[in-house]
Amino acid sequence: MGNPLPRDPIADAQRNWERHGWGDVAAPMAAITAIMRTQQILLGRIEGVLKPFGLTFARYELLALLSFARSGALPMNKASALLQVHPTSVTNAVDRLQDAGLVVRSPHPTDGRTTLIELTTEGRTLAKRATAALNTEVFGQSGFGSQDVDQLIRILGKFRREAGDFAG
Questions:
Q1: pTM score, two decimals?
Q2: Rounded to whole angstroms, how far apart are CA atoms 101 and 130?
């Protein structure tokens, strides 16, 4: 990344919120803004690792999901639900992955309205290689201590559950 700023602009924004009479929401604004900035930083790192593999994070997520499926194939609608993205996004990712020879579409054997997405051998190999790189270069060097990771999982999981992201 470039040169770090001399001060934290989010802390400055929090102080500005407080000075403008919005003290009751200044800390939540700062926390939410920090989460969004952290997401940008992490996504940048992930995309940097995946670029040599010719993958975006969205396409990698689909490959990884398929690699975890017992048969290496999933219905497109199930992939969309599990990835929590719009079906159009999955269709676009599948188009790109299919063009690259990493997945194929096939009709569902018992449901004629359903299309399966299946990993090719090349797709499975690429998913393994990309995952190894992410594990080494991003997830294994997250910048978070183990206690922080545990707290983040708990805090963000609670938020997501209460926001209706999942039931359990």
A1: 0.90
A2: 16
Within a domain: residue 65? yes
Please state the three-class secondary structure of 87-114 as a single string. HHHHHHHHHHHHHCCCEEEEECCCCCCC
Is 166 domain-assigned?
no
42-85 residue pLDDT tens: 999 999 999 999 999 999 999 999 999 998 899 999 999 999 99
**Do 71 and 44 reside in the same domain of the chain?**
no
Structural domain harbouring 60: 55-134
Q: State the Cα–Cα distance between residues 140 and 137, nearest whole angstrom.
A: 6
Q: Are residues 126 and 59 in the same domain?
A: yes
What confidence tens digit (pLDDT) does each residue in 78-132 have?
999 999 999 999 999 999 999 999 999 999 888 888 999 999 999 999 999 999 9
Asked whether the beta carbons of 93 and 83 are under 8 A apart, the reply is: no
Taking CA atoms, 29 is separated from 10, 15, 108, 148, in Å, by 9, 11, 47, 21
Instruction: Give the count of domains, the chain.
Output: 2
Q: Give the separation between CA 17 and CA 125, rounded to whole angstroms.
A: 50
Pair 111, 41 in one domain: no
Burial of 164 (0-12, 13-18, 19+ CB in 10 A): exposed
